[in-house]
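Reposting from the mailing list since nobody answered there.

I have sequence plus structure tokens for a pair of proteins and want to know whether others read the tokens the same way I do. The first protein:
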Amino acid sequence: MRFLKSYLLWPWLGILGILSGSLGASWGLAQPSCQFYSGEKTLAALQERQAVLVNGDIDPCELANIYYQLAKITSSPQATVVKNHYLEQCIESAERAIQQNSRAGTAYFLRGLCLGRQGESHGLWSSLKIISPFRENMEIAVKIAPGIDRGGPHRALGRLYYKLPGLLGGDLEESIYHLQQSIKFGPGYWKNHYFLAASYFSWSRYAEAKNTLAQAMILSAQDPDQSDAPERQQNFEDLMDSINAQCPDLSCSMN
């Protein structure tokens, strides 16, 4: 069952966690480091760490993640140009990491994220060429390292299938599958539950949507990062209102 959605793609993705390199199959040598940036997300902290990486020993995965974070927080008058520059640098850094280690799941995930952010900045219909490479990178990440960023690759694919129109590959059954998988890898992450609730709702599975949304709200309240709390709460209320409007009787009451 497929639905057209007009919302922006991929506004919801955050970056946390560490993925260590594995031993080389042929030579028994440790693969280059490929990890997420784990410091503060302020502009000053990101730029300071960027300078260290660019001028010293480079972990291209960490550098790609920093460029992604810089693109997210950029709000200068030349924001579009600056964001695009950071995203291009993110993609280049991720590709460098893949060249060093073709099994670096984090690198594929980061390359997909930055491609997705590029698509988001231009809108769905003007960035159709982004969809296939985004999906391909996330599918590779799912195979190599599905648990990174608390099920991030599955979460990304789940949202992609939810957002896309049917003619372009949108598929709620696929969306629900991937989001259920994301919960297996990140059961305590509220976004996994919230996005699954939205997909359940769009497929008229209202009782499941309400129960899953309730779990998302509980987990959200326990999240130490409350920087977007008002927006988050509004999204919860909007989805719950939509569920109740479609199914107000006891059959959709929370268990």
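The second protein, same order (residues first, tokens after):
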Amino acid sequence: MAFTVNIYYTGTGGNARKFAEEMRSSGLVDRIRAEKGNLRYDYFLPMDDPETVLLIDAWENEEALDVHHKSPEMSEIASLREKYHLKMRVQKFSEIK
């Protein structure tokens, strides 16, 4: 079953946006989008919170996400999150047919 994960990255001093920009410029976003089962991986800037970036991340199924969580890309994401001192808030939504 397909599902979507919303991840809110929040920091200070524009760090959330810098994080998203480095994710893109490093090619990490493109590598994640190319992973089997990834349906969407897009960053958005909430208009009412300049210190937060929203990632909308969609996957075909739990197995695809499990493989992603074990990938080298996850350690790169964690390192960047630490570099920019970000906090995360996660929401998960299942597709209903």
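Reply #1 (J.P.):
I read it the same way you do. Helices lie at 15-25, 28-33, 62-69, 72-83.
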